[in-house]
Structures are given as structure tokens and as C-alpha cells.
């Protein structure tokens, strides 16, 4: 029996050299926290005092029993936010969105580092004091669910934050593109930030934002030629054009997870709005849209997809992948289920355990509203 499983309804239908994004994936360590030494502790009271002292190391206290959280924004700036010690992840996310004046908050999430893995999503329904424990209260704002159609965003601030997230993905290697596509994207960034072209604008900023593998002698000239063609575009129009081109990239909005198949071959699973894709050495091997996946489960280090039978087949297909640790398997399962709920369901659903079996693993999912609920128009007031 799989530790975690989410069953889908049958009615669900739905060029130039690039940097190797597989080189920047970080694999979480399969280690645990060491227990405190029990000798010479003087009993349970002393052990409790030591635990309390360890939990407060590196945590800056706010006023009135609050905790101060250091938040890194998408533009690289940092803000300090004081929250109650009983606050949950959703409370902190709302406070950060209040600082940025963001109204479409369901696309965003908070990341923190845990046991060597720098990209662990904070559970919005869990207390922050239980999430961090002995770690400093440092988080990063990030886009968790990338909208498939950026033009449908209602808030210019949300669109700006999404553009910053895409630029960070490009710079950190999670999202790759050809040199020509990078030049086009860089030209829209210059138009949005500097306005119409003037001599000397393009060179320094284009090279500053280019990933190392994309820098060459022709890049500056390409960026400047494209930059001239954007004359007259407002910052909002340039940002929208930037996102309209970025959404066409294969790894746009994808969460990447290192796995191995049954033959012990290193692969990467990319979970995104459209489904789950399998990559090997940066080349896509298979794509499984959500409509084709009927069940997702994990059992310790094994992650399994059950696929709907094809027209010419009578039996369903099961694909299993092995991860480095049980923690990594749980992380991949949660990422897959949360993306399916957000992009395919009408409303968030609970993943309940099967009656008669013990409750193993986590059933907590951080998805407050789905994309369909976000797109639904507000009910009109009936005028008598």
C-alpha cells in the first residue's frame, strides 16, 4: 500500500546551446537531527531547557512575544516581518503580500532551506514554530503555481512579480532558453526598466542579466537590435510581452526532481501546469498530461504514476521512479498532487486515508484556492 496516494476522477480531461539545468539541481540529504546528549542533563527539566535554548538560537525576537522573520523578495531585497509565535504559514504569506500590495496571492508561496535542500515549500496550514524548530526564521517569496496564461492576471503587481520569478529561474539555471530567446527576453526587460532605447543602455545590463553559458560576443548586438524595435511600449506592455514569450519555454513554471528509473538511469521529473514530463540530460523523453494520469502514489523512496490505458490497450500502465530518500519521495508526491489540485480541480480536495489502514505519511496540502476559483467572476449583486 502506498504511503501517499491521490486518485483522479475518470472525467478529468484536459536550438542554440543552452546551459545544463540538470547541473544546478540540489539533492536533499537523507539525514536527521541528532538528539541532544542525555548524560549529565540532570533529568527532564534540564533536557527541556536545553531544547528551548536550542530552538531559540538564531531566532530574532520581535516585540511582545512575537518572532521576526527575514523575508527575501523576488527582486533580491529583504524585509523583516514580526509575526505571532502561533502564526501559520498562510499568515506570513498574507503579511508579505500586504507589504507588496498583491491581491492575487494564490500563485505565491514561501521557500526555506531544510536539511541541505534550499527549496522546501512552507506548509501554509502549519505553525511556523513547528516548521523552523532549530533553524533561523529565514524565508524566500517565490511563485509556486505559474499561470499558464499571464495575460489573464488582473493585477499589474502580480504580473511584475511573475516576471521577476522567471528572470530568477533563468539566472539560477532552472529555466533555459537559446541565446536568441534570451536576447529577446533581455530586450523586453530593458524596455520595461529603462523605456525607449538610447545609446549605451543595452550593453551593461544585458550582460549582467545573462546566464554564463548565454554570454557571447553577438549577444549585445542582438539585444540592442531587438531593444530598438520595442519603442513606444509601456513598462506594463513590455512585461506582458516578456511573459508571453517566456511561457512558451518547455520548463516554464516547472518544479524539477531528480529520480532514477528501474534500470538505475538518472532522470528528472518536471511537474508543471500541463502535467509531468520526464527528462534525461536535458532532453524530454515523455510527457504525461494530467488527463492521462489516474493516480499518483509514493511508498518510501518509490514514486509511482498510474496512467490511463491507451485506445489500443486494455490494461493501465504503472511507472515507478526511485528517489534518494523518503523525504524526497514525499516532496515529489506533494508537489504533484498540489499542482493537479490547483490546475485541474474545481476546488481544493482533502486527500483522505483509506479506511482500515493506518495513517502513514502526510495528508497536508498547501493549496487554498484553485485556478478555476481564481478565474471565476465575483457574484453580481441582485438589484431589486
Could you explain the architecture of this structure?
- With 384 residues, the protein is of the alpha+beta class.
- The chain has helices spanning 44-55, 89-100, 128-132, 156-172, 179-194, 202-209, 219-228, 235-246, 326-344, 371-375, and strands at residues 4-7, 66-72, 78-84, 108-114, 117-121, 138-143, 255-260, 266-272, 275-280, 283-289, 293-299, 302-307, 317-322.
- The chain has 3 domains: 4-12 and 253-375, PH-domain like, CATH 2.30.29.30; 56-143, Ubiquitin-like (UB roll) (Roll); 150-246, Acyl-CoA Binding Protein.
- Helix content is 30%, strand content 21%.
- The strands form 3 sheets. The chain has a 5-stranded mixed beta sheet with strand order 3-2-6-4-5, with helices on both faces.
- The longest helix is centred in the C-terminal third of the chain and has 19 residues, at 326-344.
- The radius of gyration is 23 Å and the shape is globular.
Give a brief outline of the structure.
Helix content is 30%, strand content 21%.
SSE blueprint:
Blueprint: E1 4-7, H1 44-55, E2 66-72, E3 78-84, H2 89-100, E4 108-114, E5 117-121, H3 128-132, E6 138-143, H4 156-172, H5 179-194, H6 202-209, H7 219-228, H8 235-246, E7 255-260, E8 266-272, E9 275-280, E10 283-289, E11 293-299, E12 302-307, E13 317-322, H9 326-344, H10 371-375
Parallel strand pairs: 2-6
Antiparallel strand pairs: 1-11, 2-3, 4-5, 4-6, 7-8, 8-9, 9-10, 11-12, 12-13
Jot down its keywords:
Acyl-CoA Binding Protein; four-stranded antiparallel beta sheet; 3 domains; alpha+beta; PH-domain like; five-stranded mixed beta sheet; 384 residues; Ubiquitin-like (UB roll)
Amino acid at each position: 500500500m502506498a504511503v501517499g496516494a491521490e486518485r483522479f476522477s475518470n472525467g478529468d480531461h484536459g536550438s542554440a546551446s543552452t546551459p545544463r539545468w540538470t547541473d544546478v539541481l540540489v539533492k536533499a540529504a537523507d539525514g536527521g537531527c541528532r538528539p541532544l546528549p542525555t548524560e549529565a542533563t540532570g533529568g527532564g527539566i534540564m533536557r527541556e531547557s536545553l531544547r528551548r535554548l536550542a530552538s531559540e538560537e538564531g531566532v530574532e525576537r520581535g516585540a511582545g512575544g512575537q518572532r521576526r522573520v527575514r523575508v527575501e523578495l523576488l527582486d533580491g531585497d529583504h524585509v523583516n516581518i514580526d509575526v505571532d509565535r502561533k502564526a501559520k504559514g498562510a499568515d506570513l504569506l498574507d503579511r508579505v503580500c500586504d507589504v507588496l500590495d498583491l491581491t492575487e496571492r494564490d500563485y505565491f508561496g514561501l521557500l526555506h532551506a531544510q536539511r541541505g535542500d534550499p527549496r522546501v515549500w512552507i506548509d501554509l496550514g502549519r505553525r511556523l514554530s513547528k516548521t523552523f524548530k532549530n533553524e533561523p526564521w529565514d524565508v524566500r517569496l517565490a511563485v509556486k503555481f505559474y499561470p499558464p496564461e499571464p495575460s489573464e492576471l488582473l493585477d499589474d503587481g502580480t504580473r511584475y512579480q511573475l516576471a521577476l520569478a522567471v528572470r530568477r529561474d533563468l539566472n539560477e539555471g532552472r529555466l533555459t532558453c537559446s541565446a536568441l530567446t534570451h536576447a529577446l527576453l533581455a530586450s523586453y526587460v530593458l524596455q520595461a526598466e529603462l523605456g525607449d532605447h538610447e545609446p549605451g543602455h543595452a550593453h551593461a545590463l544585458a550582460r549582467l542579466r545573462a546566464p554564463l553559458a548565454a554570454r557571447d560576443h553577438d549577444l549585445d548586438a542582438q539585444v540592442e537590435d531587438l531593444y530598438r524595435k520595442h519603442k513606444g511600449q509601456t513598462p506594463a506592455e513590455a512585461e506582458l510581452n516578456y511573459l508571453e514569450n517566456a511561457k512558451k519555454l518547455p520548463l516554464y513554471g516547472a518544479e524539477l526532481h531528480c529520480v532514477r528509473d528501474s534500470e538505475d538511469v538518472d532522470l528528472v521529473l518536471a511537474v508543471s501546469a500541463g502535467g509531468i514530463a520526464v527528462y534525461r540530460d536535458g532532453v524530454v523523453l515523455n510527457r504525461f498530461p494530467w488527463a492521462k494520469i489516474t493516480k499518483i502514489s509514493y511508498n518510501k523512496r518509490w514514486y509511482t504514476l498510474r496512467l490511463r490505458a491507451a485506445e489500443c490497450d486494455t490494461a493501465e500502465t504503472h511507472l515507478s521512479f526511485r528517489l534518494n530518500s523518503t523525504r524526497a519521495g514525499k516532496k515529489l508526491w506533494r508537489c504533484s498532487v498540489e499542482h493537479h489540485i490547483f490546475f485541474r480541480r474545481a476546488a481544493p480536495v482533502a486527500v483522505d486515508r483509506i479506511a482500515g489502514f493506518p495513517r502513514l505519511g502526510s495528508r497536508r496540502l498547501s493549496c487554498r484556492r484553485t485556478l478555476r476559483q481564481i478565474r471565476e467572476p465575483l457574484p453580481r449583486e441582485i438589484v431589486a
